[in-house]
Amino acid sequence: MNGMNNRANTQNRRKNTDERLKEAIGEKMLDWFGFVKKLNPKHWFAQGEIDLYFFITVVILVLAGIIINFSTVAPDFAKGGGTFIQSFQKDILILIVGFVLMIITSKLRTDFIKEFSVLVFLISFLLLIAVLFYHTVLPGREGIKRYIPLLGIQFQPSEIAKLGLIMFTAWGAQRNKKGLEKNWYKTLPWFIPVSLFTALTLKEHHLSGAILMLAIGIVMLFFSGVKLRWFIMFGPPLLILAVLVVVLIYYAHKDPSSIPGFIPESIKDRFVNNIDKRYEFLRIIAWLDKDFSPREHRYQTNSSLYSLANGGLYGRGLGNSIRKYGHLPEASNDFIFAIICEELGFLGGAAVLALFAFLMWRAFVIAKNAKDRFSTLLTLGIATQVGLQTFLHIAVVTDMVPNTGIGLPFISSGGTSIVTMLVQMGLILGVSRTAKIKKD
Asked: What is the DSSP string of 165-196?
C-alpha cells in the first residue's frame, strides 16, 4: 500500500514539475516574442514630434542619391533605351515604398519594436541560410550568392540581417546589463550570433558585409557596457592575427619560398594552393600589389582613382563624368562616390561627407537622450552601421582598403539597401519622439 502511495506521489511530483516547466517555457517564449501580448493597437503607436533635423538630413541624402544616380545612368538615356526609363521608374517606386515604411516605423513605440527583436533575428538567420541554396546566379560571378529572387524582384538578406543583429544585441544587452558590465564571460553567448552572421555572410562571397557584421557586433558589445580592458586584452592579438593573414597572402602570391619559417607547413600549403582560387585573397593581393592584374582585379580601383583625379577641386559639372561611360563598372553602386567627386569635385564630395557627419551627430544626440537602454542601443547600432558603411565605401573608392564591394548609404542604387536603410531611419525617428531633445 505504501509503495503504491509513493509511486502516486512521485507521479504527481513529476506532473507538477512538467507543468511548471511548460509554464516556464511558455513564459520565456512570450518574453522572447512579446509582441504576442501587445496585439491591441493602443500599444503600437508613440506620441511626440520627430526630430526634424534628422529627418531633413535623410531627405537631402536621398534626393542627392536620386540626382547622382540619374547622372550616372544618363548615358543609357542618351542612347534612347527604354531600359533606363524602366530602371528609373523602379528606383522611384522603391523610394516611395521606403519612405512609407519609414513613416510607419517612425510612429511605432520602441518598446513595441523591441518585442520583435528575436523574431527579426531568427528570420534574418534563416534568410542567410536560404540564400546559400536559392539565389540569383550572376553571369561571370557564379560564386556570389547574395540575392534571393522572389515574385519578380531580388532582395539581399544580408541587408536585413544587419538590422536583425542590431535589434537582437540591443534587446539582449538591455536584459543582461549588470552581467555584461561585471562579467566578461557573459559576453560569450553574444559572440555566437555575431560569429554565425559573419560566417554566413562570408559564405555568400560578401566580404564587406561580413566585415560590417563583425564590426557591428563588436561595437554593440562596447556600447552595452563591456569594460574597455577586455577589448584592449583581446583586440591586439586579433589584429596581429589579421596582419599575419595579409602577410601570408602577399608572400604566397609574390614568393612562396619567402614565407617566414615559423609558419607551419600545413598553413603555408593552404594559402599557396588557394591563392588563385579565393576571390578574397585576390582582392587583398590587388590592394597590396598596385601592378597586379590591372585589367582584372585592380581595374575598378584604378578607374575609381582616375575619376577622383579628373574631378579636381570643383568637378567637371553634374552629368559630365567621363569615367562612367563604360570605364568604371558599378558606377551607380560600389563606386558612386568616385562619380560624385569627378562631377562635383572635392567640394562636392566634402559636402556629402558633411551631411553624413551631421546625420551621425544627430543620431548620437538622440541616443544620448533616449528614454530607455534599448532605444539608446538601437539608435547607436544603426548609426554605427551607417558610419562604418560610409567609411568602407569611401576607403574602397580611395584604395585605402581592398575592394570589398559596398554601397554608399542612401545614394548607391539597390532596392533592399535603400528600403532597409529608410526603415532603420524610421526607427531612429521613432526613438526621437520620446527623446528629451530640441527637435526643430
From this structure: HHHHHHHHHHHTHHHHHH-GGGGHHHHHHHHH
